[in-house]
Amino acid sequence: MRIFSGIQPTGRKHLGNYIGAITQYVAGQHRGEAIYCVVDLHATTVAYEPDILRESVYDTAATLLGAGLEPDRCIFFRQSDVHEHTELTWLLSSVTAFGDLNRMTQFKDKSSAQRELVSAGLFFYPVLMAADVLAYRAQEVPVGEDQRQHLELMRDIAERFNARFGQTLVVPEARIPEVGARIMDLQFPDRKMSTTGGSPQGTVYVLDEPPAVSKKIRSAVTDSGTEVVRAPDKAGISNLIEILAAVRGTAPEEIEREFDGEGYGAFKQAVADAVVTYLSPVRERYAQLRADEPKLEQVLEEGAAKAREVASGTLADVREAMGVGPVRPRQ
Ligand code: TYM
Questions:
Q1: Where are the domains of the chain?
Q2: Is 3.40.50.720 the CATH number for 2-180+292-322?
Q3: Is 144 exposed, middle or buried (0-12, 13-18, 19+ CB in 10 A)?
Q4: Closest residue (by CA) to atom 20 of ligand 1?
Q5: Is 181 in the pocket of ligand 1 (CB under 6 A)?
Q6: pTM: predicted TM-score of the whole model, two decimal places
Q7: pLDDT, tens digit, for every residue of 298-318?
Q8: Is the pLDDT of residue 331 over 70?
């Protein structure tokens, strides 16, 4: 089983990223051949500062390593170090429908939020994402719910490529967790928790100090009822139930049973304590790892060398299938 996923470089990974994706990356190392990258090229599709981007790659790398990625058990690298991703993006664009890109909800949301230039890169974002995964012929892609549409598009791209040029690429499956695939903002529980679109008080960051984590959870917006159960008109409580279930690795029903008759105050305190205990070790390991930039750089470079070995094989096959470049000599 080959597993691939990517994560944007921002210094501020939040609880949604952690529960929806990062814990799955760590688990993936023990289930198969796991390949993960920090997608710095995707980060250039919206307004950004070059110096901050470079730093953010290290921040994200230290967060993931702090969360438990082990460079001996997975391939972990920076996207821009492996040029095959950008070449494959171009080659895949020939089997990507303009109309499909136009329908991407993330493009619509992000382009309407841009105050300056809406870059062509933002429009092409999903093709680069398809190239990330298809370059490794990955079977499985662990992601949160918000990436479902991008995953469907990349499956279409792979299928269209194979139909047009012959069986070359693997059609990947999304792996979206049953619990925690869409963690919501604590202040606006009808919106997903997000670095760009969320509220500061409603977003728990992985690197927040324990008192801040605790305060944000205890001040989460809830309804005027008292019952700890999931319901469509109880978005805030439903979100906290989901968070606690994910952190404990149990089912939401278990949480409802445990807190039956307890009231919101005790429940919120329990969620706050559980999340503090969950994130604290990551924050502590992060501090040590982040302090050693040369070491982080070395990990990423070694990862890129391993990634390149896999991706270059796929690229050679894709070029050959498409009639791009000279005929490959027979071996
Ligand atoms: P990014 O960096 O925005 O998010 C990283 C992962 O976190 C998940 N996530 C969430 N999960 C649960 N609740 C939330 N509120 C929440 N917010 C974010 C995302 O679903 C994601 O899995 N386009 C991707 C990066 C990417 C990629 C790839 C992913 C680039 N190439 C190839 C998979 C495969 C993104 O922006 O993720």
A1: 2-180+292-322, 200-287
A2: no
A3: buried
A4: 144
A5: yes
A6: 0.96
A7: 999 999 999 999 999 999 999
A8: no
